[in-house]
From TrEMBL:
Keyword Acyltransferase among UniProt keywords: no
Membrane topology note: Multi-pass membrane protein
Coiled-coil annotated residue ranges, if any: none
Keywords: Membrane, Transmembrane, Transmembrane helix
CDD domains attached to this UniProt entry: Arl6IP1
Annotated ranges, domain RETREG1-3/ARL6IP-like N-terminal reticulon-homology: 56-217
Primary localisation category: membrane
Membrane spanning stretches: 69-88, 94-118, 161-178, 184-200
Subcellular localization, as worded in the UniProt entry: Membrane
GO cellular component: endoplasmic reticulum; membrane
Protein name (database record): RETREG1-3/ARL6IP-like N-terminal reticulon-homology domain-containing protein
Length: 235
């Protein structure tokens, strides 16, 4: 009972109400109202990205592939970065330290440089809305990941066999991949996939692939079931 109540609370926590309102051009515009917890997370994220809002909007255009050359640029940047790592062959401690230095220097320099290029008076209500939508989408994706993880972990109490089968098979596959492929190559594939993921999601590639996999598995199970039924009839 406690697990069911907790899961219901998690699902309610990330739901939203859907209400219509009249827009400026007498069109039907839709506005989402979120729970107070999610609104607090959105406000916190907006405050944290306040000095980066211009850079964040420009980066959003690249990550959602607003232009045709954007995915090529993302793959090319990831490839060049890991090629340097392959050639230099630094230690893990060096990579972490250099990454931390880059983040620290960027956090100090880039907002100051950006303020000289992007004047505050050019920040319009439209750009503010885009920035708020960006922060909202980030919080929503975070909520989806938390819900997915909570539902998976809940299998430990609702369906222990399925939970342990999925966990053991998943970890075994990861162990085999780790033993088969180079660590740097795996990191390159993972980073490249992550930088391409927002664009694939925005352009519907993820949904198409999910639909294809779902249809393939459904057809495979249907054929397997029909084959088993046919063998039973022959016996």
């Amino acid at each position: 009972m406690a697990d069911q109540a907790g899961d219901a609370f998690n699902e309610r926590k990330y739901t939203h109400d859907f209400q219509a309102e009249q827009s400026y051009h007498d069109m039907r515009d839709y506005k989402f109202t979120y729970p107070s917890l999610m609104e607090a997370q959105i406000r916190k994220l907006k405050h944290g990205l306040e000095n980066w809002k211009e850079i964040a909007l420009q980066g959003k255009k690249v990550f959602i592939w607003e232009r045709q050359w954007h995915p090529t640029a993302l793959v090319g940047g990831s490839t060049v970065l890991f090629m340097f790592l392959w050639l230099l062959d630094p230690s893990i401690l060096t990579v972490v330290s250099v990454f931390g230095l880059c983040v620290t220097v960027s956090d100090y320099v880039i907002p100051s440089v950006a303020s000289s290029f992007f004047k505050p008076e050019k920040w319009t209500a439209r750009r503010e809305k885009e920035f708020e939508e960006l922060c909202t989408n980030i919080v929503l994706y975070k909520a989806r990941l938390e819900l997915t993880w909570s539902r998976y972990y809940k299998l430990k109490t609702t369906n222990r066999k399925l939970y342990f089968i999925l966990t053991i098979c998943g970890l075994s596959v990861l162990a085999w991949i780790g033993c088969t492929f180079n660590n740097l190559f795996l990191a390159y594939v993972l980073v490249t996939f992550l930088v391409l993921l927002p664009g694939m999601e925005h352009n519907g590639i993820i949904s198409k692939c999910s639909e294809y996999v779902h249809n393939f598995l459904a057809e495979f199970l249907r054929q397997a079931k029909s084959k088993v039924d046919q063998e039973k009839k022959e016996d």
